[in-house]
Specification:
The structure holds two protein chains of two kinds. Chain A is an all-alpha fold. Chain A contains five helices and no strands. The two termini of chain A are 32 Å apart. The relative contact order of chain B is 0.18. The chains are: A mainly alpha, B mainly alpha.
Chain lengths: 132, 83
């Protein structure tokens, strides 16, 4: 009796968000799918072509991570998502800076960087998927 | 202190993957496929991925990953000292 009353008061005071897991977010999920697939494709097929990486793929990937950063910034009670998005956005900035230098980075650097970005995006998918 | 190989053989897939990637990055440096500067950046990225990993893990896995990261940091620190 007292236990039920205590739970009722708790729910009344703090609301259902405290006992309900965060909802699955298909928008955020979709962004990470695109990022993971793009990074995997560049890693497997395009790192030998610096012009394509710089002029085509990196701008697309930057667009995705920029959207993710803003989107997650305004999600309620979800600092983890925002930190993940910022981390991946920073990685895109780093590789972009290297391609904007006079000498493009090595193909192997591109391969490893894209692998890390893809891994990060897939981990994010795992985290989001777990929240279903 | 454990070695990268110990971590690669760890039962936790997150830790094994982190350690495998650390070993791959080191191998790329040794083969002169990446510069020292690129190596440092990629290792930093790898260690920063823990934030992403931790979001996908249980508390027990988070603790294990943090311990593994500390080991990798020490190994990377030694490597940085050599460079």
């Amino acid at each position: 009796m007292w236990k039920q009353l205590a739970i009722s008061i708790f729910v009344f005071v703090v609301g259902c968000t405290a006992i309900t897991p965060p909802r699955f977010d298909p928008i955020e999920f979709d962004y990470y799918v695109i990022l993971a697939v793009d990074a995997q494709k560049v890693k497997n097929e395009d790192c030998d072509d610096p012009k394509a990486v710089k002029n085509h793929f990196l701008p697309i990937m930057k667009e995705i991570t920029s959207r993710l950063v803003v989107y997650t910034q305004y999600k309620r009670n979800d600092n983890d998502s925002h930190n993940i998005a910022k981390e991946l956005d920073k990685m895109i900035d780093e590789i972009t800076n290297r391609y904007e230098a006079s000498e493009p980075p090595s193909a192997q650097y591109c391969t490893i960087k894209m692998d890390l970005i893809s891994t990060g995006a897939k981990r994010a998918l795992t985290a989001i998927g777990k929240e279903k | 202190m454990g070695t990268l190989q110990d971590l690669i053989n760890d039962g936790n897939p997150f830790i094994s993957e982190l350690a495998t990637k650390a070993a791959d990055i080191r191998a790329a440096l040794d083969a002169e496929q990446i510069s020292e500067n690129e190596y440092v950046e990629l290792m930093d990225d790898l260690l920063d991925l823990r934030k992403v990993n931790e979001a996908a893990c249980t508390i027990e896995e988070k603790i294990a990953i943090q311990q593994a990261i500390e080991t990798i940091k020490i190994i990377v620190g030694i490597v940085k000292g050599v460079l």
